[in-house]
Design a protein that fits this description.
Length: 208
């Protein structure tokens, strides 16, 4: 199973990717997590990409492509979350997979209106110990996750609006890109977390 999952910030792509990886055994590769880990390590690259991340801007294509590439050949079952984010990245992914002799099985587009997304993002928290993502109201952390629970630097209202603009402008056109290749699956992300998971699992033929 080789699948990409994309959607506007707050549609729950990280949450769904985590759940689907857990249920199918596929590797969850999140370029956003790679970016945050690089920033946290305070490496030269991390310092260079921090300003893009904190503003809600995309990290330049050539940097993110080089960061994602090594993971593609590591396992034969993965779910790529947050990559590609534009057509140049989609083409780079096709090229990289072509070199490795694989193809994509599905491209999942998670869809939700902007106003629902802003509400979700403002309540989003990540656990620093487990890396899991929660929502203060809709999906609060369980007692066995010790936290601490923190809000992302780019979950400010200004950065959220900016990221949504970039999504509509650059990432949303990937729906046509993958539709033309016959692998697009659109999922209604306003449904409950388990319902969305079911829909995605059905779409990738992993619903048992
Ligand atoms: P995410 O967790 O997927 O929302 O990503 C957080 C941030 O990491 C984005 O706002 C970008 O700054 C950077 N990032 C993650 N994936 C990509 C990508 N495919 N292309 C460019 N920047 C990315």
């Amino acid at each position: 199973m080789r699948v990409v999952i994309f959607g506007p910030q707050g549609a729950g792509k990280g949450t769904q990717a985590q759940r689907i990886a857990q249920k199918t055994g596929a590797e969850h590769i999140s370029t956003g997590d790679l970016v945050r880990a690089e920033i946290k390590s305070d490496s030269e690259l991390g310092q260079k990409i921090q300003e893009y991340n904190d503003r809600g801007d995309l990290v330049p294509d050539e940097i993110i492509i080089e960061m994602a590439k090594p993971y593609l050949a590591q396992t034969d079952a993965w779910l790529l979350d947050g990559f590609p984010r534009n057509e140049a990245q989609a083409k780079a992914l096709d090229d990289a997979l072509g070199d490795l002799g694989f193809g994509l099985d599905a491209a999942i587009a998670m869809e939700a209106p902007d106003d629902a997304l802003v509400e979700r993002l403002s309540g989003r928290r990540a656990s620093e110990s487990t890396g899991r993502i929660y929502h203060v109201e809709h999906d609060p952390p369980p007692e066995d996750d010790p936290g601490p629970f923190t809000q992302r630097n780019d979950d400010t209202e200004e950065a959220i609006r900016h990221r949504l603009e970039i999504y509509h402008e650059q990432t949303e056109p990937l729906k046509d890109y993958y539709d033309e290749r016959g692998i697009l699956v659109s999922v209604d992300a306003t449904k409950s977390i388990p319902e969305v998971t079911e829909e995605v699992l059905r779409a990738v033929g992993e619903d048992g």
